[in-house]
Hints:
Number of strands: 3
Radius of gyration: 20 Å
Largest sheet: 3 strands, antiparallel
Number of helices: 7
Helix content: 55-70%
Shape: elongated
Strand content: 5-15%
Amino acid sequence: xxxxxxxxxxxxEEQIAAYQREFQDLDPQVEQVVSALSxxxxxxxxxxxxxxxTLGISNAEWEVLxxxxxxxxxxxxxxxxxxxxxxxTPAAMTHRIDRMANDGLVTRERDExxxxxxxxxxxxxxxxxxxxxxxxASVFEEDLLQDLSSEERAAFGEMLMxxxxxxxxxxxxxxxxxxxLD
Length: 182
């Protein structure tokens, strides 16, 4: 007997109507924006996870690769710096680096200038995984925004940046995670 699918997520309109029914002070325009952003973020993360999975890496590993690339050549950072950039505890970062070093995506070596310090460096294989993930993501992202003109993309990007700046100003500690997910 085939499984019957569980309940589906209500449409945004249904969700907002339910919220308004239960909380009359709700601004439906604000809720539409915030709920749409939340759903978009969740769905994009699922899409990115599917893409990185085809490369044999997780989104968590993709985040480390990204952080190393963003740091610039020679793509090296200490585990503590990586943990801060990704909002992780040092223990969670160590666990992630262990997996990635075993998979040949990064190396971990003692800093010659300070033997106590460890340096994590992107390998050629790790850089190639990052490049392939970027190729896949750019195709997905272009498709995602295909219905917006260049001017609309610019305006939308600026509006999102203003909202992001507001959150960063009012919630300066919100860059990390409440708890480690891996």
